[in-house]
Amino acid sequence: MNMIELLTELAVMPLIAFTIGLFMVLMMRKIAAKIQRRVGPPLLQPLYDIVKLYAKKTQNSHGLVHDIGIIMAVGGYIAAETMLPVPGMNGIAAKSGLLALAYVIMIPSLGLALGVGQCANPNGSIGIARALTAMLAYDVPFVIIIFGASWFYGSNNLIDIVAHQQAGGIATWGAAKMPVLAIAALFSMYAMLGKQPFEIYVAPAEIATGPMVEMGGKYLGGLFVMQCFQLFTASAIYVTMFLGGGENWPFFLVKLFAIIAIPMSMAFVFPRYRTEDVLAVVWRWPVLLGLAGVWLVMH
Amino acid sequence: MNHSVLALVPALPLLASFLLPLVPGAARRLVGPLTLLAVAFIGLNLWPLVQTEPMVLAVGDFAPPLGITFYADSVSALFVIAVALVTLVLWPWSGSDAGNLDRKQSLTLILAGACGGLAVSGDLFNVYVFYELAAVASFGLAAGARTAAAQIATFRYVVIGSLCSLLALLGITLIYVQTGTVNLAHLAQLAPLKLHNPLGLAAFFMILLGLGVKAELFLVNTWAPDVYATAEARVSGLLAGLVSKLALLAVVRLLVLIFPLPEARDALLLLGMLGILSGEFAAFRARDVKRMLAWSSIAQLGAAFVAFAIPGPAGLAAGLAVALHHLLVKPALFLLADRWGGSLAQITGAARNSPVSAGLFVLFILSMLGVPPLPGFWAKYLLLSGLAAQPEGLWWLAGAIILLTTVVEAVYLFRVIGALYGRDHTVTPKTQSATAVIGSGVFAAVLLAVAFSAPLLALPLNRMAVQMADSAAYIARVLPPVLPGVAP
Amino acid sequence: MTSLDLLLILSGLTTLAGFAFGNHRAYPWLAGIVLTAQIVILASMPLPMAAGFGFEMFGHPVGWQMDGFGRFFALITLGAALASVAYTGGEWGERYAAGGKNLRWLHGALAGNVLAMLLLLASGDLIAFFIGWELTSWAGFLLMAQGGERALRAAMRYVPYAMAGAMAVLGGLVLSLTWTGTLDLSQLVMLVPGLANWKLALLLALFGTGFAIKMGLLPVHLWQTPAYAEAPGAATAFLGAISSRMGLFGFGLLLVKLITLTRLADLSFIDGLFSARDLIEWVAALTIVLPTFTALKQNDARYLLAWHGIGQSGYMLLGLVIGDATGSAGGLLHVFNHATYQAALVLSVFAVMHRTGTADLNSMGGLVTRMPLTFLVMLLGIIGLAGLPPMNGFVSKWLIYRSLMIEGRPLLFLMTVLGTLGTILSVYKLIHNTFLGQLRAEHEQIREAPWSMLVPMLALVALAFVTGVAPGLALNYVNEAQAALGLPVMAHTLGGVESPRGSLDMLWIVGVLFAGFGIGALLFYGAGGRSKRIHQLDNYAGGHFLSADVRYQYSDHFYAGLMHRIGPLYRGSFTQMEAALASANDLLASLMQAWYRQAVPALTLLIATVLGLAWMIWR
Questions:
Q1: Residue from C129, C138, C159, C206 whose CB has the most chain B CBs within 10 Å, to mutate
Q2: C559 — contact with chain A (CB < 8 Å)?
Q3: CA-CA to C91 of 20 to 30 Å: which in A230, A293, B89, C154?
């Protein structure tokens, strides 16, 4: 592969991811609307929202780190997308691997945390403390699952992992070979998305006590973009590990959206866990399942 | 050199001590130091002579085993030198009045003479005589501080000391009854036949306890902390540093020549271990610097007993190293503790006023803890490797105890360092006296010289140990085989 | 004279110079030049390099020889010393001296530490090793004791630990000699693996205890935090960067070279189920997790970092004991990486202390606007400590994770990741409570740290960044160390590792990361309305308006939710164990004193004599 082709891929992959992410947000809202017996937003509403936020006149900055936080949040995901293979494009997946990807997607969280911290709003800091605690909660089962998958496929290379699964159709998918791990992974991904009942740190209902408290205009817009990326990334990692990755675009898209649809269909009927309960529930079920899954994989 | 100089080693200081009050004027103050220098000179001349062949003196030309025998091998020569020089460094230069000073100097000379005698004695009876002399002198010196506390402590010392002297005498009597001789060489010849039995062992045990008093042997050492804490610093230094080593030497001679038995070694080993344990732990709780040093010295001597219990030259080398190291370190520490005695709180920040003394103190402490490359490390190394070379069991237990108690030792000794270099503006610690600084400086210089020349000293140490361990040679030297046709 | 001689002589001269005129303004420059020269000499030295001096003691030759393993540690030592000395060169040193403290002692002790460590790292036999070991311990003590009353107390607490460690090592030394008849490392390497299992286990226990204490492994870690945290700034950085790694050096020699990892796995406790190797791996793993979560609860920045120092050492040992090419490379590389960012972090904390006078995380905040460069140092430092790209801490941890994956150790892997996650939480608290949030009224006039302090800090993080992007630079030396230990050598590229089963190319990862940041910045600054800078107090508080007279910084009990869940797990068991040991010691001591206080010594004597005679007669 020549350099120009690679660079093109690197440029295109984040764009695709963003676009898919936008539609995932739309789907999420539509599902919520259906559950709540509303009509829901029109097709391009997520895009309108972003444009609106960027275009607002009031853009309050609390200083350079506030800006850098948003840049890191978005930039980190842009980088992460180039490490996730999609149909026809591998980006730098071979040079980074699953493990590095798992750590690169912590950078946006750190960026967000820095940005919020600089806002000098104690309520924001409280939100970040909760967000980081939630991260501690869901990353524990997540890494167990990464271990199990990586052991099973004998590789840390996502391209290998995809090829391994596509070799024999559905029968060789990760989910078929490691059902327990796949369930655990779904659980931990659910927690990662920060939707009900795991949405204490975002606290959308009471905006005063969450990371978003000082975020307006393009700061919130940046976080909106980040959310699109986040939805895509979480889903794509899952699909890559357990659902055979992307053979071709139509199948890949179906899988991606289906994976997001599962937690979203459940989310909106739940109330909210407190921080310590997030820890309790996430450290219990997905971790136990994950460890059981790893044991099954290794024996 | 004429063999009869051996007799001068004890005789010169004893004579000088009796003549001292008769010497008029300022010359009186020179008698002691000059005598000691003379003894040191004898010792230094002795040293090269006895390297290959020990020297024997039969007083009055009564051939051994009859009569009084003096015997000097390289260990004896070394201890003669040490006795003279250490006494010189710890010499009482001043007293409250002239009479007091005379008394102190006389007693110190008697002590030096007795110690010298112990170093070169070749028979059991002389050992006892010199030992008693040393005891009397040390009682006098210990009480010399003239405080009530010192007198009470000395009384306890006298009680224990006299009881133990009786025990020793009893032991010697038992041996004499069994063998009809007190000459060490002769005893060594007869021992396998007549003394390697329960009775002989009982005699050994009694002598061990008897002589052990001065060597701070566990069971008979309860006098030591109080005496050392209340006596003058130089006296404590002399008792802990010098006298204890000579008593130890006497015990070791018995062990090597007459009782090279596992039972005897076990007794030494066990009591040594208990001495280490009790000394180090008791020192851990001590809040008084001098008492702390006293307990630490009990522990160090326990280590020396353990070392000498190891069979063969390896044990003797380790024991000599431990004993000589302690001889260098402890008197110096007692000297420094003269002004810095009492509770630790009183010396907080003393390093600011007396940086040199504090530095010396740290140096001695580090050596005592066995921090390489100071000599204490090599002593500890010899001791531990000697123990490890023995079959497991008690020997290894002793090694483990030494390792463990060093940790305890480090804690209490560093407590002193912490106090010296700490800060507390409410107390003004005393500055060190010039004599203490000079005295301990001399010891420190020797210590450092040993540290730098350690690789060169390993060989002589080993040679000394081999010579000392060779009981057959001792017998042959003192009692030459009377072959037909050869004049005795 | 060999170049190793020259190295040691230069080090000795620096020590003398430090004690003699460390308070002179020119000393830091001089020491800096000499240290740089030493680094050059060391780096260009052909290996193995024997010293021209040595002596023989009791029939055993004592000598010094530098190999690749020692050089790796020695380079880090010299580098850490260079950074520390440079830091003291300007205002910091002046303030230190003005506070009534003695720069001569500080510089002398620092240089003495370097000398002691070089002697240790170049030791060719166990006696030389022990000499270096003891000198390192007590030189370390000297450095720790200089920070004032609290520092002295912490240093005193170190004494029993250090002595216990030293005595354990001495015991091991003596047993090695007894069983093999030699103290020469090159001969021991051949003889020790052939010893019986119980002998190996005893050697492991003795040497291992000594090294574990120095390293601060659980459960003998308690001394380290206060001792390192309370030392004067430059000393803390040096100690935190390299000092306790001497324990790791010892473990490298012991576990890999002397006992060998295969023999280590033979020493099984429960019928082959749990071997000594597993034990060490688990001790290392617990050392990662528990201290990290203890760090999370600290309210003093220095203590927080010191606890992390303990935690990170677990990664190094774990990597080393896994022992495959990847894992051991990760463990060793982490030594270097940790030294770079930890020194930078410590120095940044002391830079903040220099300006604010406090390291209390509950009495700072918002300093980023006043000390932006110090913030940058701390930011890059915590990214390194947390082990996230693009800093070098990520690479070494990645290697360790990867080797645990390859070797199939899920629980250990989980422990390592748990440590990393805990670290992220903890270091965010550190940077948040120091630099983010609300600026306090008393800190409004604060200026950036002086350049004399900033330059070494920035140089350290620059190093941490460069070796993060191009880990191959440091991996060259790691390979040398691996080869010297007899470990499999990890093939590497400039950007990391190339393997069909999972490569790591930091050049590309960092490249896309910064490209991503660039695009993010373009999107942010290029699109949308202009942002307006507003005052920190101009913010929304849900009805409770924060005003200038009520400043509120969320700092204490930062992770309240987390603590609600895991708080009860902090039981202070190790502290209690330490206290119990001390009480037992005290009890024994009073019993022993009672012996010497007995009222009727004559009676005791009688009883003892009778018993002794009985023993002699009937045994």
A1: C159
A2: yes
A3: C154
What is the residue extent of each domain of chain B? 1-122, 123-472
pLDDT of A45 strictly over 50: yes
Supply the pLDDT for residue B338. 83
DSSP string, C94-106: HHHHHTT--HHHH
Of C389, C408, C432, the CB nearest to A100: C389
pLDDT for B326:
93
Domain total of chain A: 1
Query: What pLDDT, on the 0 to 100 scale, is given for residue C547?
Result: 64
Q: Is the pLDDT confidence value at B486 over 50? A: no
Whether the CB-CB separation of B120 and B80 falls below 8 Å is answered with yes
Q: Domain containing C375: what range?
A: 274-489
Give domain status of residue A81, yes or no.
yes
Chain C positions touching B366 (Cβ under 8 A) are 138
DSSP symbols for C344-389: HHHHHHHHHHHHHS--BTTS---GGGT-HHHHHHHHHHHHHHHT-T
Report DSSP letters for B327-385, one per residue.
HHHHHHHHHHHTTT-SBGGGGTTHHHH-HHHHHHHHHHHHHHHT-TTSHHHHHHHHHHH
Euclidean distance between CA atoms B13 and B34, whole angstroms: 10
- Give the nearest partner residue to C534 out of A14, A62, A78, using CB atoms: A62
User: Which is nearest to B264 in space by CA: B157, B171, B182?
Assistant: B171
Enter the tokens of residue B354. 């007396």
pTM of the model: 0.93
Q: How confident is the model at residue C544 (pLDDT cuts 50, 70, 90)?
A: low
Distance CA(B121)–CA(B129), nearest Å, equals 10
Are residues C168 and C210 in contact, defined by beta-carbon separation less than 8 angstroms?
yes
CA pair distance B221, B218, nearest whole angstrom:
5
Q: Which amino acid is at C136?
A: T
Q: Which domain holds residue A237?
A: 15-30+45-298
Per-residue confidence (pLDDT) for residue A205, from 0 to 100: 64
Task: Look at residue C564 and tell me if it is in a domain.
Answer: no
ipTM: 0.95
Q: Which two tokens stand for residue C2?
A: 């060999």
Counting the structural domains of chain C, the total is 1
A5: in domain: no
In contact, C72 and C478? CB cutoff 8 Å: yes
